[in-house]
Amino acid sequence: MSERSGGRLVTAVIVAHNRRDLLAETLDALAGQTRALDRVVVVDNASTDDSAAVAASYIDRLPLDVVRLERNTGGAGGFAAGMAVALDAEPADWIWLMDDDTVPEPEALAALLGVVEPGGYAVGGSRVVWVDGREHPMNTPRSKPFASRGERSAAERYGSVPIRTTSFVSMLIRADVVRQIGLPIADYFIWNDDFEYSARALRGRRGVHVPASVVVHKTKELASTDADPGERFFFEVRNKLWLFRFSQGLTVPEKVMYGASSVRRWLRTYLRSRERSVIADGWRRGRRDGLRSRPRRNAQALSGLGQVTIAVEAFDGVER
């Protein structure tokens, strides 16, 4: 039997695009949580299958809102839209983020709340595994490199680890933090949107990785982010350069540290690729756009989407 605890309100935000069957698995898993959700917002990113209809069919099982976007805004735009809608009218204390190929185990939400609430954390992330139970390298959190001994000890009491960034594949964030820092940057479209956003959320705040909270990330393959990405490598390069140039999430020493790590990852991606010319082209275009442009404000990137745009505009003056 699902139940709430402590009167805290939790809203889940799921971004969906053309994966109706996986979306159904995600919604089944949300309906089966031992700690019931107070609201679920499904953002349908202009799917051409019947993902929106599949989501709507859960109205009797979940406190559900389906937000259908007229164009595909990518994962970054979908999360920005969904979080804005989630906080527009209904109260919430926590926002739980995930993609439509994320299947939480029944205790996933309860385990997250059981650590972040008593520990006073701003962000919590789940242990992400693949379909065979192995750790998913795509969603490994970055541990906090300069965590104090006290912070590490406090996290260890809950069987957890202090983190500096985490993935949108089961990220729980306090709603008041969202109101303080704003939304994910929609113009990232895909890749590094969660890196930038969780870094921003955790600058000056504490976050924790909760291994007792487990979700299954049903990607086609068990691969890390430096696996052969093809043309999408453009987003990796451009968005990283945008992050290092404009984001308020990282300190200067952190930008140097993570920048060096990114260069090593880019080189590794190129050397492992079977289509090196595609990777090289993505690097050139990403470098050009990352150095010559900057992301638009969300109200501009998500313009023309009716009530979604209005909800996003409420965050547009928030420092990011």
UniProtKB/TrEMBL annotation:
<dbReference type="GO" id="GO:0016757">
    <property type="term" value="F:glycosyltransferase activity"/>
</dbReference>
<comment type="pathway">
    <text>Cell wall biogenesis; cell wall polysaccharide biosynthesis.</text>
</comment>
<dbReference type="Pfam" id="PF00535">
    <property type="entry name" value="Glycos_transf_2"/>
</dbReference>
<feature type="domain" description="Glycosyltransferase 2-like">
    <location>
        <begin position="12"/>
        <end position="181"/>
    </location>
</feature>
<dbReference type="InterPro" id="IPR001173">
    <property type="entry name" value="Glyco_trans_2-like"/>
</dbReference>
<keyword id="KW-0808">Transferase</keyword>
<keyword id="KW-0328">Glycosyltransferase</keyword>
<protein>
    <submittedName>
        <fullName>Glycosyl transferase</fullName>
    </submittedName>
</protein>
<dbReference type="InterPro" id="IPR029044">
    <property type="entry name" value="Nucleotide-diphossugar_trans"/>
</dbReference>
<comment type="similarity">
    <text>Belongs to the glycosyltransferase 2 family.</text>
</comment>
